[in-house]
Amino acid sequence: MNFTSKDFLDYFKLVVEVMETEKDYLCDLDRKLGDGDHGVTMSIGWQAVKEKLNNELADETDLGKISSLVGMTFLNAVGSSVGPLYATGFINGGKVVKGKSEINDTDLTEYWLAFINGIKDRGKAQVGDKTIVDTIDPAGKALEASFAESQDFLSAFNDAVLAGEEGMKSTIDLVSKIGRSSRLGERSKGAQDPGATSAYMILDTFLKVVKAQSVKG
């Protein structure tokens, strides 16, 4: 599979739409655990990205620059803890594809593993803490294992998204151990973590784009 800079730009535009559509849902999840503003935060960050996509990045072909600038734009727009996490993820991924305008299955796998590892390194959370890591860690492990076996990004990323979804849903029964929601203790049980949910949306949106591209190709 060949994935171009235009495909990446289209992907980021679709994330903007998804976050706008799911803004209220993400806020509803966050009301059970925190300030109730996660959807608004994601919307603000991705609307800032949209501005970059429509202007500075409209004709950009360097995949590394696209990903890195998306990360920095999100960080500059969002003051909350999620800003540095996604910024690190997209900047890390950008380093893998720097200078390239078209990438293959191996590049795509390395990009998303760099994205996931960047977030994990920056956030310091562990699986079971009821955070974004409960989605991305199993997704990363599934992607790495599946791609090593198949050398096919689409099937491997499909496995990754399924694992991420399972991880996201697992947060419902977890007690929050990090951040504002940790003050709730046992009362944090029964609610799905909003950060784990928005992370799943970012991965799932990419899967949809790759599936659509493979049908066209």
Overview of the molecule:
The N and C termini lie close together (8 Å). The chain has helices at 5-21, 23-31, 38-54, 63-77, 82-96, 105-123, 133-150, 153-170, 194-216; strands spanning 3-4, 102-103. A two-stranded antiparallel sheet has the order 1-2. It contains 9 helices and 2 strands; from the N terminus they run E-H-H-H-H-H-E-H-H-H-H. With 217 residues, the chain is mostly helical. It has a single domain, classed as Serine Threonine Protein Phosphatase 5, Tetratricopeptide repeat. Helix 3 (38-54) crosses helix 4, helix 4 runs antiparallel to helix 5 (82-96) and helix 6 (105-123) runs parallel beside helix 8 (153-170). The model has no long low-confidence stretch (mean pLDDT 91).
Percentage of residues in DSSP E strands: under 5%
Secondary-structure element series: EHHHHHEHHHH
In CATH, the architecture is: Alpha Horseshoe
Write down the overall mean pLDDT: 91
Number of strands: 2
CA radius of gyration? 16 Å
Bulk shape: globular
How many domains would you count in the coordinates?
1
* Relevant CATH superfamily: DhaL domain
Classification by helices and strands: mainly alpha
The percentage helix is 55-70%
CATH topology: Serine Threonine Protein Phosphatase 5, Tetratricopeptide repeat
CATH class, named Mainly Alpha
